[in-house]
Amino acid sequence: MQIPGLRIIEYILAFFMIVVVIWGLGILALSIPWNGEISAFTDYRVMMEAILSDILLLVVGLELAGLLVHRKIEFLIDIVLFVVARKMLISAYGSTEVLLSVVALAGLFAVRKYLLICPGCDKVPLVNNKI
Description:
Layout: H1 6-31, H2 41-70, H3 73-91, H4 95-115
């Protein structure tokens, strides 16, 4: 059973999420030191981690907006993939955390390739290792 106004609310939420992602992209572009303020390697590493974290967070926001609009399970798997990748790239410092993140990513890719049945999935260019 579907509530009649629910789809309209989901579209409005998706629109606002896209607006927030565009706004966040502008803030991110303005926050990058373009004039060579980074002097030490550690400062560069910290800056790159922050930029990667922000970019992957914006990608998760876009995927979430797509999930609200299209309601497809593929979007949910993509969101979880990006969240695990963000966690792995940004805050996985121990070898156990990295190993668990790699296993989680491999499991999600396996689910996406072998267990996800959707119309048009055989038209994906990467099926059968053909690009």
